[in-house]
User: What shape does this take?
Amino acid sequence: MSRPLPKDDKRRVGLAGAAAAVAPTGAVIAGTALAGESSEGGGADSRTLAGPGTISCPDVTPRLPAIPASAQAGVDRDLAQLDQQVDEANKRLVDTVGQGGPDFVRNAALGPLEDKRTATVNRIATAIGRTADRPAGLDSLAACTLTK
Assistant: This one.
């Protein structure tokens, strides 16, 4: 039959168990923090130093016709949203440096950005087209490129 442990031994066993449970969590945190560093002594690898590049998109504003007063607020909101979409895609590039394969930038940033810009440009054209002639050819301004 086993005898019950004194209080001090119970506390010691409990602390050892807690420390054993926390140790793997610390390894995960340390591994995540060091993920951007090279194995040669602590510096960032060359992909991080080179930077991910910047997404560049054509400006929609110069291609717009005169905007009716009734559509001005909506068009201004959508033009601001176009800028916000590019900013978010650029942030995504910075946050995901070194991830994925050769098509990663296209699949994770440029493709979704083009889809969002197409929808936003179509909303602009629709807002103008409600009271004036709908501008044509704005869809060609949705595609963006990556500049290094």
Residues 46-147 form one domain. The chain has four helices and two strands.
